[in-house]
Specification:
Blueprint lengths: L4 E5 L3 H12 L3 E6 L10 E4 L2 E4 L4 E3 L3 H9 L6 E3 L4 E5 L5 E5 L11 H5 L6 H15 L13 H7 L4 H16 L8 H13 L7 E4 L3 H15 L3 E4 L2 E6 L3 E6 L2 E6 L2 E4 L3 H7 L16 E11 L8 E4 L6 E4 L6 H4 L4 E7 L10 H15 L8 E14 L19 E3 L12 H15 L13
Parallel strand pairs: 1-2, 1-14, 2-10, 7-16, 14-20
Antiparallel strand pairs: 3-4, 5-9, 6-9, 7-8, 11-12, 12-13, 15-18, 15-19, 16-17, 17-18
Helix pairs in contact: 1-8, 1-12, 2-12, 6-7
Amino acid sequence: MAEARAVVVGGGLAGVTAALRLADGGRAVTLVERRPRLGGAAFSFKRGELTIDNGQHVFLRCCEAYQWFVQRVAARDQVFLQDHLSIPVLRPDGRSATLSRIPGVPAPAHLGASLARYSVLSPADRARAIRGALALKRLDPADRALDRQTLGAYLRRHGQNDATIDALWGIVATATLNLLPDDANLALAAKVFRTGLLDRADASDVGHALVPLGDIHGTAARRALESAGVEVLLGHRVTKVEPGAVVHLEGPTGDRVIDTDAVVVAVPHAEAFVTAPALTTSPAAPAARLRNAPILNVHVVYDRQVTDLSFAAGVDSPVQWFFDRTVSSGLRALNPTAQYLAVTVSAADGLIDEPAQTITDRFVAELARLLPRARGAGVTDAFVTRERQATFRQEAGANTLRPAAETGLDGIWLAGAWTDTGWPDTMESAVRSGINAAEAALRIPARDRMGFAA
């Protein structure tokens, strides 16, 4: 009997996951990636002697699939996970607070003390926030009616004002949904707050990479793929995927056609419809109407240490989040007294086309407003990275446009954080999508599939 073969198109988290799961399921797998690297939208690059992540990516304890991925590529020692939730929140006027949970206290009471002491809000607004938490707890992410609503409208109907939305709910929602609350899909927001914050006490503990993302999503992933017997073709472009699992690709040595048993198309949604034109007449066709949303990152290198925080959120500031990347970038080894902070700006439609100098000038000044020690520090480098199509636009109505892994086309399955995983467009969704597509292609019955909590 001929060996069953599969081709995975795309070397991001979804594609790498699909390839690993297919190989683990006994398939002979070829992974094709047009770039000279793996990692997709979560990657690293060199700037002088430093290694820079294109964006800042975190995961939560509830992100079971992503943690499986890290374990599967033997990179568990390259990530950090808090033993309990603790998020510093700063305001330019000097007020600060910490979003945290009480260890040993069950959800949702685990957040009660933190909300009661949340001093970036007034006492009256803290009481409003508790009312908002109870309202979010009542939502069912699977309720399809929520897809037509926005988070902001729902919160306002349940007593939340601009202060609570901006200084509490928006901190989490904007970062995970890449839209402001007044634009963000309520069904996906319900998933974020129920699964990530309100249903299980330890679910929201924050994890992040201790090394450049490229070390995990690129180097470690490639090692795992090759150990699993996956053929990895970097710098090759798939020009067309046809029903019947026929793959046309071009590479440095010329064109090639692969007749295979299964194809997993694991690329962004717009690219998927170009790569596999037959999708336009398949059950996946509505996904062609998904739009994109950008993320912008501002990178600032100081000549001295300006904060002791490894990360923090900002309120009343365009600095939504900043992360200390001094060690992971290699700066600490080069200059032990310097510090490198990376600022993430989600929902960046209004900034994405601004000149880099305008952006860096503004954010260097804003960091100085949040961090008093930055006011006298010298800036040795400041630059901008932009992801114009960072996520699909997770607006009202978008969730029902997301396709399943099964396309209805012979031999073709879909993966990508934009597919219907039940999760927002995150690293967790990307990994889950790869598992979904591979297990569907392997025809593993749903009851026997990898059992991550929904």
